[in-house]
Amino acid sequence: MSWRWMRYLLASAMLFAAGCGNNKPAAQQIDGQLRIGIAFETLQTEYWVASLDNLRNELNKRNAEIVEVVADGDANRQLEQVQSLITRHVDGIVLVPKDSRTCVPMIRAANKANIPIVLYNRGAATGAGPHVVVVADNRSITRATVSKMVEVARQRGRKLKAAILIGDLGDINAIERREGFDEIVAENPDVVEVVARIPTEWNQEKAFAGITNALQANPEIEFIFCSSDFLFPSVISALKSANRYLPVNDPNHVVLGGFDGDATAYGMLKEGYLDADGVQDVQFECQQAVDALYKMNRGETVDAVLPDPGFVIHQGNLETDAERMWGSQVGSHK
Amino acid sequence: MVRTSSPLTAPSRHTSSHTPGQIEQRSEHPLLAALRGRTGVFCIALYLLCIYPFCPELASTGQVLAVVHNAAPLLVLALGQTFVLLLGGIDLSVSGVIALVSIISASFITRQWAWAPAWTAEPSLSIAAGLLLGAVIGAVHGFAVSVLSLPAFLVTMSSMMILGGAAVWITHGERIGDLPIPLLDAAQRHYFGLDISVWIAISLALVALIVLRRTLWGQWLFAVGQNARAAYLAGCPVTWVLISGFAWCGACSALAALLYTARMETASPTFPGEILLDAIGAAVIGGTSLSGGAASALGVVGGTLAISLMAQSLTLLNLAHWHVLMAKGSVILLAAFFDARRRAASAAELRS
After folding, report:
1. CATH code, domain with A159
2. Does the distance separating the beta carbons of B299 and A1 come in below 8 Å?
3. Distance CA A292, CA A55 (A)
4. How many of the other CB atoms lie within 10 Å of CB of A131?
5. Cβ contacts of A31 within 8 Å, gap of 6 or more
6. Residues B149, B155: contact at Cβ < 8 Å?
7. Sign of CA dihedral A31, A33, A34, A35
8. Would an 8 Å CB–CB cutoff place A197 in contact with chain B?
9. Same domain? A271 vs A245
10. Long-range contacts of A9-12 (CB under 8 A, 24+ apart)
């Protein structure tokens, strides 16, 4: 690059700088109105889309100005986006981090700028600095879900071979769900024996390849727990390929369980293919997250962890509890 | 990998941003002449002027600093990729190298492996080991391309899979955190208002600038990129140049891995492959020819800032990530189009 060209660039930069004396955010805020940043790691699944919609609703109720960013699975990009929100002088940040570790510098940056930050649905590693987490009790919801699956399996009167689709191990939710599964399996050695642990890294293609291979290597698998409902399409495809996708009343039915409570799981429950599903209360979590931000802006103290107790939905309580399952309120089920 | 059919042109110290066989046209308007090979940067200047009325926040100090800080690790990657592109090759293994170097350096520093002697936890040694590992991986790529005559595309793509898979295998998919606080503090310290990663990137850009303009190695890189056979006949050690060019790229990827690790305070066994496209895009926007033989370190700096600027401005406009992707893809395509037009014009001039 020649110096002449550099001069052109420098001149352009000076003109640009001269034309912009205003260092304040451009958007006009109404007095008392809060500007809230929402930073999502991904919108890959229905759960995140439903969460974003609920957060928007909660913030719109309070007449907040919303600034949204989505990192599309890239933690580095998410850090850049959070820093961008900070330079835009937001009054609070709702962060859905990629994992528990990479969000640490984001929390630190928000703390440094005195901006309240709420982690939605995923906690941070220890030593991250002050923040609030709204999170489902993954371990206990998974324990309850797998217990229900074991109850169904016990009726077969024999030991079933099981598989689990594990999420991204950098995600504390995935780890807690795996641990909840392992605990119940360990408590019921006479009912279930795990023969396949399939790492998915929250990726549908990897899930499909993994469950297909597992079913080929262990055709006798009759018990599958899916750490997130968004992986169900992969499980259904693999089971259909193996002619194993059968309704709950079929003697050869594969006992199925999942976690989230999305529309796919609701459809499977309604059609009689799914045995149990751990449900996160999206509306409750979003309300808690927004409430926490507003309280912190008023200088009030908020608990560091705001738990969502969740619940298990199964064939037995589907009729009574379907309305509480957020998946029954989205998409074609709306 | 290496073109041998391009016109025989001797590499020159002062043609770092010119395409092979380019002939100066004295009658050309000075502005048009200045734009030759820099259309990507011109597009960005135009983009800036167009977007500013909708996004005046972009001119705030915080946003300008954010653009610069975000560009730093990408610049390091792009400078590495530029050397390989200059040779007429490509290195697709970037995400794999970043993942492996990141987790190996972090594993040593945090004493993850019981078998590793205590002295490996010394940060400077772990960092040096990471850089060395990147350079060695790059050198192996260069060896496969130059000695085994394997296509760079195939070698580096396979390498990306192997290294990425190895990183996940070693860590069982888990990230490594708990890096020493003093090390993180040192890595995130600011000097004259800029993060240390920015100064590292600037230093590397200066080294690349000097190498490409003032050293024999730089001349050899241009010579091999323009016409490897002619370079060989002229006495250039083509094999060594290819190996060293790829090694430089590997070392730069390793350095970027360390910068990303320090920034995220976490070593991750998976790294988004999109960063490769950003690095190649930055090089192409900066005037690097995808056919080899033309590159400019300052152009790459401009290209990297352009990529960072686009991402930042579109985010400020509340546009989604896929809009950013579409915009970046369009600009890169435009830059590649102008590069192809330039090469076609040069070839036509030579034929006439």
Report:
1. 3.40.50.2300
2. yes
3. 12
4. 23
5. none
6. no
7. negative
8. no
9. yes
10. A9/B41, A9/B45, A9/B302, A12/B45, A12/B48, A12/B49
| Any domain includes A21 | no
Q: Give the pLDDT confidence of A101-130 residue by residue, as tens digits.
A: 889 999 999 999 999 999 998 888 877 788
- Residues A162 and A128 both lie in one domain: no
Kindly state the tokens that stand for B147: 């000695």
The yes-or-no verdict on residue A20 having pLDDT over 70 is no
A63-72, A219-228, B170-179, B196-205: which has the minimum mean pLDDT?
B170-179
Q: In the structure encoding, which two tokens stand for residue B262, read together?
A: 């320090």
Q: Is the pLDDT of residue A255 over 90?
A: yes
Distance CA A208, CA A226 (A): 12
Residue ranges in chain B modelled with pLDDT below 50:
1-26
Domain that holds residue A99: 31-136+282-308
| Chain A residue closest in CA terms to B322 | A72
CB contact under 8 A, A105 and B265: yes
Determine how β-strand A221-226 pairs with β-strand A255-260: parallel
- Given B45, B302, B316, which is nearest A1 (Cβ)? B302
Token pair belonging to A195: 């023969």
Question: B interface mutation test: which of A87, A107, A227 has the most B CBs within 10 A?
Answer: A87
Do A260 and A184 share a structural domain?
yes
Taken as a whole, chain A contains a residue count of: 334
Output the six-digit token pair for B183.
Answer: 């090390």
In this structure, are A151 and A250 located in the same domain?
yes
Q: Do A20 and B52 touch (CB under 8 A)?
A: yes
Question: A309, A137 in Cβ contact below 8 A?
Answer: yes
What ipTM score was computed for the predicted complex, to two decimals? 0.74
* DSSP letter string, B22-87: ----TTS-HHHHHHTT-HHHHHHHHHHHHHGGG-GGGGSHHHHHHHHHHHHHHHHHHHHHHHHHHT
pLDDT reported for residue B30: 62
Q: Which pair of structure tokens corresponds to residue A43?
A: 């919108």
Residues from chain B that touch A70, judged by Cβ atoms under 8 A, are 320-321
Nearest to B293 by CA among B33, B5, B11: B11
Question: pLDDT band at residue A133, thresholds of 50, 70 and 90?
Answer: very high
* pLDDT bracket for residue A28 (50, 70, 90): very low
